[in-house]
């Protein structure tokens, strides 16, 4: 037995009815008796609920007959079926929600792949504009930077520079002086 809204409503209705009957007398002693009866009824309901709870938990079953035990078992099976139905519904709803989220993530992923492909194409076009295109022989047609330095076939490869030993040049500062102020590439 569980206290429900209906049983609370019946308690208040009984109180209101008894109060109306005793209101004519307006005697504080009769109102105290009314409250004492209500307290006794509520205590009995609490004891019944506690006893029912202990039985549902499998405690204090020794005084029950076979029929009472079968009734208790039926109540527990009914409760368990209700629990399974609710749990299954929650799991179904969660799976449905996860599938929906997975579909959204898959769509976002596809959109991001499209954006990456677009960026790669733009990058390739920029590389063509900067480094030029290869001619029929495979040599870069516009692959030279200032001073005749070639960047090579792969525009993303680093340019390797190598310094040579300075050559003896005649400078205005004097005969046999070495020019250190100029970079020479080999």
Automatic annotation (TrEMBL):
The keyword Metal-binding does not apply. InterPro entries: MADS-box/MEF2_TF, TF_Kbox. Residues 32-59 form a coiled coil. PROSITE patterns: K_BOX. One of its GO terms (cellular component) is nucleus. It comes from the Eukaryota. It holds the Pfam family K-box. One of its GO terms (molecular function) is DNA-binding transcription factor activity. The keyword Coiled coil applies. Keywords: Coiled coil. Residues 32-126 form the K-box domain. This is K-box domain-containing protein. It comes from Lithospermum erythrorhizon (Purple gromwell).
